[in-house]
Amino acid sequence: MKFRVLATLIIAALLLTGVAAAAADGTEYGVTTGTPAQTDAPAVAYLTAQEAETIALTHSGYTAEQVTGLRSEYDVDHGVAEYEIEFRGDDWEYDYTIHAETGEVLSCEEEYDAPKTAPAETVPAETKPAKAPETKAPETKPAATEAPATLLTADEAKAIALAHAGLTAEQVKKLEAEFDYDDGRPEYEVEFRYGGLEYSYEIHGETGKILDMEKDD
Fold it and tell me: What digits encode the pLDDT tens for the residues 129-140?
């Protein structure tokens, strides 16, 4: 009887010792104590489509109320998450690529697209036959003398393009201007580089109006 009591006491002591050890390190008997290690990388915070649109609009100088056809599309290009933003402001088509994480403007293309006014063409067509007398010939001669208005210089065309881009001649590289006629219209093609992007402008040789603009990597 004494041996049986002694054995029972020894077994109880061993069980208590095991439970105490398990409580100390919190790993035995399915018990876990403490907090898990915070080693997981935080989730990447992507921009919303509206935030990307706001960045593109701010860069172009327009507000959402001033543009039409505003649309955005999320995509992953070569592992880079980005938004494609498109809209129209005045007579220009804008196409932006915005980094979906940093909000950086990866590319921007601006294309001039004047609205076509077909009805205006029919009015002169009706008036020309009505004014067919020989007196019209002398009227066209003075018009011909007025047409060659003073053309812009290459430096003036460069200044127009730089002002539109918000840059100075000292900030850019390979600034060039080339004069040419396109369907009888005098134009300057102005090109330069800045910040890893190549800018290309078409400037009307008389009015200084920007006919086309592209910005590529």
Answer: 555 555 555 554
Rounded to whole angstroms, the Cα distance separating 34 from 26 reads: 8
Instruction: Dump pLDDT digits (tens) for 150-185.
Output: 789 999 999 999 999 999 999 999 999 999 998 888
Common-topology check for domains 49-112 and 149-217: yes
The backbone region for 14, taken as left when phi is positive above 0, alpha when psi lies in -120 to 50, beta otherwise, is: alpha
C-alpha distances in Å from residue 153, one per residue of 5, 93, 181, 188, 205: 114, 28, 14, 9, 8
- CATH of the domain spanning 49-112, picked from 3.10.450.40, 1.10.150.130, 3.40.190.10, 1.10.3720.10: 3.10.450.40
Tell if the pTM clears 0.85, that is, is over it. no
